[in-house]
């Protein structure tokens, strides 16, 4: 070798992340279920007092969008088809997509019923170039599910997500390595995940309209204005994101809310609703084999002012009775205004894996847990309204 040192530098490996997003998912499933809906404005949402979950692209021409109050949607498009939806069917379609994605990569992170990330790095030997694989997935969804998805392909999750929204519906956008900032620069700054209406107003006040404008703001000024979030904005504006695709992300909280059809002041109805919601979140807690230490109650008044209050227990628990008293106490403590209520909710957090180390001084816990597990089994077989505690009877759970 003539005494020469040969240095072999490893070739940089860029990750290849796909973000897949169903197009107008709930509405598209409804059109599959009833083909006569195709070509009509279809809006899926809750009751009259709820909000739009999904509007198909025909309905969007009338200015209807997700999270819009249904009453507003009906004013904009009185002749639209308004559906409460078939949520079990949406879950079935979602499961079929996730099973399909699992075939192509072990790294699939489901974000919601209608979107997921797939890490295609290193799958070339099995399926060929990632671009071809992503195209194949998109075509399989069309052929096997009769649904449209949009796909974004990039070196990280942030850019892949923005790319999947770039040419909806049925879009396919590839951002090559090193072109992340160039791709983002001309886009409206609100296209960045995390830039909501309040932040958007502050950015516009500072002359920031596009992602490129944001990228030109010195990072120290963003941090000065927005704290740690300002630093995150600086990274996002340059298309930088180190997050990995992580399957089965750890559950951090479990919550349930109910919006009333009419504003409510009846204390018995409000408290029975909270008891029923507590039953629901505790059942989900046990199903995931978890226990919770912190309980939170949320109330929203008729003028949309929202208040939450929380309490942390001395130890993690998963028994309904342990949370009923806490929930009702928090509700009575937190309801300080005379306005009627529009919404109530219950959340559990500080979750830990189930241990079932019962307090030696509380002989009732094992008996209460046994009762809960029997009730869970009945509800699992016959539906969650099959059996209810008396305290929840005035409230009828939404299915």
Please specify the SSE layout and strand pairing.
Elements: E1 17-22, H1 25-33, E2 42-45, E3 52-55, H2 57-60, H3 70-76, E4 81-83, H4 87-102, E5 108-112, E6 115-119, H5 124-127, H6 130-145, E7 149-154, H7 157-164, E8 172-174, H8 180-184, H9 197-205, H10 211-215, H11 219-226, H12 228-237, E9 253-264, H13 267-287, E10 290-301, E11 306-317, H14 320-334, E12 341-353, H15 364-382
Helix pairs in contact: 11-12, 13-14
Strand content: 15-25%
Look at the helices and sheets and give the structural class: alpha+beta
Low-confidence stretches: 5-11, 357-362
Overall geometric form: globular
The separation of the N and C termini measures 76 Å
CATH class of the largest domain: Alpha Beta
At the fold tier of CATH, the topology name of the largest domain is Alpha-Beta Plaits
CATH architectural label of the largest domain: 2-Layer Sandwich
Largest sheet: 5 strands, mixed
CATH homologous superfamily placement of the largest domain: Reverse transcriptase/Diguanylate cyclase domain
Oligomer: single chain
How are helices and strands ordered from N to C?
EHEEHHEHEEHHEHEHHHHHEHEEHEH
Number of helices: 15
Share of helix among residues?
Answer: 25-40%
Quote the average pLDDT: 86
Widest beta sheet: strand line-up = 5-6-1-7-8
Tell me the domain tally.
3
Produce a short descriptive summary:
With 399 residues, the chain is α+β, with helices and mostly antiparallel strands.
